[in-house]
Amino acid sequence: MATTQSNRQEDFRGMLSRMEREGQLRRVKRSASPRHITTLCHQAPAALLFESVEDYDIPVAGGLYWSRSRVASALGWPEGELGKYFAKAAAKPVPPVMVTDAPCQEVVVTGDDVDLTSLPIPFMHEKDGGPYISAGVAFAKDAEFGLNAGCYRMMFRTRRELGMDLFTASDLRRFYTKTFERNEPLPIAVAIGVHAYEHMAAAFKAPSGVNEMEIAGGLRGEPTQLVRAKTVDVPVPAHAEIVLEGELLPTGWTVDEGPFGEFAGMQGDLKHNPLFRVNAITHRRNPIFYALQMPWENDWLNGPATEAACMRVLGMAGIQVAAVRATEGGCCGWSVIASIKKRAGEGKNALTALLTLPVVKQAIVTDDDINIYDPNEVEWAITFRCQADKDIVILSGMKGKHVDPSVRPWDLKPGELPTTAKFGIDATIPEGIPAFRYERIVPAFKDEVRLEDYL
Amino acid sequence: MSSPNTDAKIVRTIEEALTRPVYFRDIIEATKNQSYRAVLCAWSDVRSRLTLERDEFGRYWRK
What we know:
heterodimer, A: 24 strands, B: two-stranded antiparallel sheet, globular
């Protein structure tokens, strides 16, 4: 990896400024308590930047990726083409560069001076087990797999300790398992307040051995700048707002962590997880803390990647795709809608392809005359182009997820994986019905007059 | 920002709350007139000194 001096590239605060200019972020002047940040973000029509937070001189941002429009603004991509842009960028990864000086290390706090209560870690949901750092991007290295970046929640325990959720399978869990079995700590660094490019790449389920920061470079269109953390041999984004450095102790899955408001919009369970001991905090001179708001911000971080994956499997099935939409109600992954330029039989082919994606549980396929971003149009297509006894595809016994209560995960034996049924709705014009049967009404002389001339 | 000392009064309030199963929200509620950071410092002290029980709902209490 090349080493160079850091230079200007859009960072987290630059992204906030741009979102504000585009009307997607509002500043809050009145002082707010860390107790109230989440509920205020949930009520807001835009992302919020709390300039004044009680007891702290650190502003807090939240709600940045709460909707398709906010994600599009953060990334600087067209709203309807998030999947296409993600697919294009992920196909052209750009390796990161190491820099020698970094804004994220303008202030360095180590040893006994480390105090996590110096950060405005908010208490977010009614039944959470404590205050949470929800926007941490964790970096770790492994001799076999190289650098890994991923998103993991962390519950505040003490001034130096956080419980880190490594319950589900992940690369970091794999790295940690190896060091745990050797009874050694795993050095890690956690960046808070990184640009959407780095955050989305870290959330992306890249295959083991793929450096997520190369994906970030693809999304950014230029190399992500990394700097070596001060106390551990792990690189972190040079332009992060705050970095926590330390080690995952070899205590195994013994520390109570949770419950936490999960990505599926439901309160999760109490878990037992590893302990992250923080040995250093580095940050910019005037850092901004980022409190990612569940569930939609977490879901939207995966939305473009899901849409890209849908386009990929549809392409592999030889289907011409017009548009793909991962819907919010389906947590931007479990439920998808695709419009296609259909040839005979391809409605069902498309459904089958989409339902093979591990996360997708339900899918709708329409013709390309349907605007899939308009729920009324999708419903219209289902109503008039679908016969339930012929056009609903149900697949049983497919891989499910514990987070879905409808698979009754509590009935499973330890280590047993859940299975689920999936369904798809073919809302394309059925074979044998001529298109003119679906001719839409058009107002007479619609191009001759404009309403604004009459108001 | 320098680290504040732990406020013994807040620690006592938290310990009293923990005599029965409580959600963390109840700890925040019981200390709502105190500075948030001071509550986190006190919680840190409690968690460092005491072993707290958790039930399946995630409630804390002290045996």
